[in-house]
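Quick board copy: two proteins, each given as sequence then tokens.
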Amino acid sequence: MLRTRLSSSIAIMLSSALFMASALSAPAQTLEWYKNFTGANGRIPQLMSLLQSTDGNLYGTTSSGGKYGFGEIFRVSPAGALTTFYSFCENFDGICPDGEAPAGTLALGPNGNLYGETQIGGPYNGGTIFEITPNGKLTTLYNFCLQTNCADGLGPDGGLTLATDGNFYGTTYYGGSGSCGNSDHGCGTAFKISPTGALSTIYNFCSLASCADGDNPYGGVIQATNGNLYGTTLDGGSYTVGTVFKLTLAGKLTTLHAFCMSGPLSCPDGYSPQSALIQGPDGNLYGTTTYGGGDGDYGTVFSISPAGGTLNTLHAFAGYPTDGSLPYSGLTSGSDGNFYGTTMSGGSSDADCNGSGAGCGTVYQITPAGVETVEYSFDATDGYSLSGGVVEGTNGLLYGTASNGGSKGYGTVFSLSVGLGAFVRLAPASGKVGASIKILGSDLTGTTAVSFNGTAASFAIVKSTEIKAVVPTGATSGTVTVTTPLGVLNSSVSFHVLK
């Protein structure tokens, strides 16, 4: 069984280690634009999706490159203006005190600052958690491997999730007190960290015999509307190749599914999930596995209820020349009710990416019923090896990154039109009556009304890309609507009113 962890500690030259694949038909869409990473402005963006912040710009990370060569946070406008926002490791002295090799999707805090992780670096070289202001001032909140034998975790790379209790939650790939035999420093943790940097471990993976609870969580966690956390592990479980788990905020873990239930030769349900889950409009959880899905071994898209039960394989990728293969990244919910994702390889391009002869990767759409369509096929010019996902901007365009390719071979950032319309995004997408909620969008100046599932709310226009609204008395869970001079905008996900 092939199990791969993309490690940024040695600059992750994806092009030398991974398969590529290709598909049959011509691209259904065209890129609106793509920009090249050149080394000085970053190198190898991977394992993350872009985050659209309150200023309307999108933010992401590269695992290496930047001013000092150890990774950066970059900013790109919806129109494609790419700039370096922060370069890690200004004061190198054997290690990077502020962290090295950032990974995972950045999180937007209630104060408007961004929060993220580096996989290595910090005084103990175990990775860091950081906060950065809109002006680019970075503060390290926590340095991993502070405790003996890295009992507090080592190698965070799945990104952070802001939960309803005001804390951030995430995972580390190594560290903790579990013992899985493939690391001198444990098998991974789930942790809670306050916005001021107080960290506590809430679960140590591989705490059960034979690691039946899973080990090496890779994609972080999400919080579902029922308040519980959900995620996946790359390894472990009853068949040793990954799990889907539920975790309460208090740290009680339940394994919902162990992958490869039919044995190691075909794994029709997939194996080795490496990305975060999402919760769909129907309340179910959706995700991807990098491998498996039958004899092709090209990966799957699946759904599962938050309560557990049967895992449904919605799509098994077929590889070259049919569709994509190796979906490292997870899915994003589109405003049209469908899901969008990327594959490391596959697509219709006949470009010979890295000598593999198997294509360069795709952006695909998949319906909740499992009907998959390739939206765009990449080549070596516009990028290849899409290890990160796509995100829908509030203008309706999809934005993402390719880890390799482009003019220097260091990757690209791109936008893609698939016919989606403008909408508004909620930050956060849940809260109690009286809570202040950020509403992010485009051209919000002149807004005349905001409502929560039909109940009018008081609001204030902060800028053209941000409104602050108060959850009104009598509000119920449902769509948030913003009325502007240019038309009515709906939230891409339902707002969940907390009791």
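And the next:
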Amino acid sequence: MNKFRILGIIAIIAIIANFFGGLNENWRDFKEGFNEGQNNAMKMYEPGHHIIPYNATRAKLNVEPLPGTTVDSLNNNRVVWALPYTVTEIETYAKPSAWHILVMGFAIPGMFLFLIGFCSLIRLLISISRREVFISANVRRLRWFAYTSASLEILIAIGEWIIGSAAVEQISLPGYKIISYAGYSPDWVAVIIPILFAEIFAIGVKMKEEQDLTI
């Protein structure tokens, strides 16, 4: 049981550190986007400046040159001749559809439910550190975390797929073919495994309760 307590404490520390690290990264991305928006607003009337719509979303796309596209060249300071290069990925902006706004509307309560699930996970780990492992309350806590995190991941994946589909339809690059969206790629193993473990844990708790009744 001492191992459970030590592992529980380590898991709590790791999860909290990862959570605040993610908040810091998200805040940095938000700040960069805010500064970029300010710069665009200040420069939008300057000659030669590309105006980015206020509701546009950044998108990365995989591209490949068409057969007749002339290959560009670059200089290499190690050799005396120019070397060819091609573009395989571009980053630009696309206007999301109404479906994306709808999905993001569902993501707001999904984020709230995920925070409840995250708190449930912390309570689960605290319970484990107190040597209270195979109890029905822990089943509910683990299920809350597993299913809310999976739901939020699926919503984000759907939103990114909508953005990618819109970007592929809207963007054209002369001499290149747009292949696919190169943005967010969900880790489906990380989505399925917590749910699987939650249900296995629930079966184990049920078997323990039945065993306790037969004694």
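Board note added afterward: Residues 1-52 form one domain.
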